Fold this sequence. Notes:
Blueprint: H1 18-32, H2 48-58, E1 70-75, H3 78-99, H4 102-108, H5 119-122, E2 125-132, E3 134-137, E4 140-143, H6 147-164, E5 168-169, H7 178-183, E6 190-199, H8 215-218
Antiparallel strand pairs: 1-2, 2-6, 3-4, 5-6
Amino acid sequence: MQHTEPKFVPYKGIRYTRPEMLNRSREFYQYMDKRRTVRDFSSKPVPREVIDNIVMTASTSPSGAHKQPWAFCVVSNPDIKKKIREAAEKEEYLNYHGRMSEEWVQDLLVFGTDWNKPFLETAPYLIAVFKKAYELEGEEKRKNYYVNESVGLACGFLLAAIHNAGLVALTHTPSPMNFLQEILGRPENERPFLLIPVGYAADDARIPCLSRKTIDEVLVYYE
Length: 223
């Protein structure tokens, strides 16, 4: 096996004064704390360049061995969105009528959701995120590492970028999602990971009255 010598370039990190660090970290937290999952979308168009920037921000995420094992498929075609909605609702109907446990159904009551997913057609864009189980170079398969972790991190970056652009999103996970691979004609090495509607919130959008865990519930220091 041929070994590649590592190549490094200089890196100079961004540094702020202590007050600047505190202020920036506080402001960013307060801004991100306003992010909410939304199911009521406007059909108002979103500039395509904004979507380009959002996706490329997601692609700055770290990944195992820098393999970047993701593909972001952006759907705006109404006919394709309709097919995706029909397929997703078929799976969701089965989920709500027997696949999901009673506990799961009870936990979802606070969101007021059911198997109907109109947002899959209303939102101007659907971003179908695929994870690459392995790379295909011609007929050769090349291994990817920490695929789920890497793609999960990229999706986190994606959601932050969506919020930063003044848009809203929903992390939709109709299970199983194999229909996405078929409808979008993705290659055999890709697996559906998330389906994310993206757009503006509808003028009459409503969200559940929920609260996030406190700092004492999520943060543990060992000093």
